[in-house]
Amino acid sequence: MINKQLPRTLAFLLLVIIFHPAAQAQEQQWIPLFNGTDINDWIVKIHHHETGDNFGNTFRVQDSMIQVRYDQYGNFNDQFGHLYYKTPFSHYHLKLEYRFVGEWCKTAPSYTELNSGVMYHSQDPRTIPKEQDWPISIEMQFLAGLGDGKPRPTGNMCSPGTHIVYQGKLDTRHCINSSSKTYDKDEWIKVELIVLGDSLITHIINGDTVLQYSKPQIGGPVVNRYDPKQKQDGKLLSKGYIALQSEGQPIDFRNVMILNLEGTPPAR
């Protein structure tokens, strides 16, 4: 005898599977932010230059990589630059690879040697005046060893015009070191950044979780000559732009991908 309720039960179970959060997560796909051929989906902002001016061809594409170079510069003149993806994000999992290459620009500040990063929750580059030096943002900082035998971790947190909550307390230090080991120049490093709005932030280097913190918010120094309307100290940052950094050291970026985590509940 055929159970007439069985088809209904199967249909119900199928709907549960389809709409279950785990099933939905499996359907989410990694989206390339960099298409491997051009940076038309990105916006350049370099200190001392108007938004959109890619001074000195600083950001360029070759061999399916975004390259940062200074061969068309004279004096570096604090021309710190950032390459912003065109769309802001809130909850996401970002992954990319980077490697430091070439010779550091000797007229750049000494701290920029083998130093770069990716900014997130950044202000819109179109709100940055010509003479503002750094974007109001949080930085996942990339470093390499200087060959002196001293540890120099990568995947650190730096905070131009911002603060974070670290180990349960508001932390106003400009940079906090991660627990990563020291990596060398010319070595490809795999980076992951998991951002849950204004909740938990996780830094991952070569598969290892190296730093976690929460509640990114506007506040503090380092950013100069900004539009006061953009710096509302104490305001939590739940979304913003992602940007690759240029500050004096040639670097290559590749495989820049994002997984949208919108709808993920905040971490407790």
UniProtKB/TrEMBL annotation:
Q: What is this protein called?
A: 3-keto-alpha-glucoside-1,2-lyase/3-keto-2-hydroxy-glucal hydratase domain-containing protein
Supply the InterPro entries for this chain.
AL/BT2_dom (IPR010496)
Which GO molecular-function terms appear in the entry?
Answer: hydrolase activity
Show where the 3-keto-alpha-glucoside-1,2-lyase/3-keto-2-hydroxy-glucal hydratase domain sits: 29-258
Gene3D superfamilies from the xrefs? Exo-inulinase, domain 1 (2.60.120.560)
Q: Which residues form the signal peptide?
A: 1-25
**Keywords in alphabetical order:** Signal
Q: List the Pfam families.
A: 3keto-disac_hyd (PF06439)
**Keyword Magnesium among record annotations:** no
Lineage start: Bacteria, Pseudomonadati, Bacteroidota, Chitinophagia, Chitinophagales
